[in-house]
Task: structure prediction
Amino acid sequence: MQLNINDEYSSLKTVVVASGNYFNSETVPINNETIRHYVETNNLPNKEIILKEQKAFWDILKANDVKLLVADEVNGAKGQMFTRDLGFVIKDNFFISNMKKENRRQAIKGWNKIISKIPEKNVIKVPENIFLEGGDILVDNQNIYVGISQRTTILSVEFLKQVLPDTYNIIPIFLQEGFLHLDVVFTIINPQLALVYKEGIKPESYKLLDKFKKIEVTKEEQLALATNVIVLNPQTIIMNTNQKRIKKLLTDLGFNVITTDLKEISKAGGAFRCTTCPLYRQ
Result:
């Protein structure tokens, strides 16, 4: 299987996804602040709606020539549809994450058939003493942004420096307390533009993002995971139908913005980026 991820915005060709069929609203773990909010407000995600949203999203991906590799369901594993966290690709190397939450670790077993098609020399397992999850990795050519978050520790930065060539610049971005992953507060749209929730990033780290022109999202938009879009290609972005303000800003900049509902899935703490793990961008 061919791997190639050098950025967040080149034409997307292959992703790993997983069905939300495992989801059970009666046994939802409080794995993040977003799901906590919906538990406390008695507004838990509905499995039937999740599956409808997921099908519509997958249909859009297929219509745009994206190949979907569907991971197998793993009995008892939580968060399986959030494939982004379980692994990530930098250049032609596939990293198997070390998940902080025990209830999410078994989900990677559903990827066995996929991983078996990757050359063994290109599979790198994050050591057990280092927590590193894919939602905290953003690739921008030679710059690798690493969210230091609830789930990813600073040790991950040294690990990546050791396993990647010296040509890469590993940049730790420290998140404010309470934010799950980097991609819920920061997403790269192209080499010059990003969606950012400024209050989710510590000031000294925010300065490290000065190269980007920023579209800042509000607190309410961040709760609805406005930064968690998926860039299909340099001209096309998929995002939630409820993000009308941000859609207009992006459209005014010349982007083709495709919208579909992922509001129910978002209640569980992830949206478009979280539910796709790219293996190949052209």
Remarks:
- The two ends are 14 Å apart (CA to CA).
- The mean pLDDT is 94.
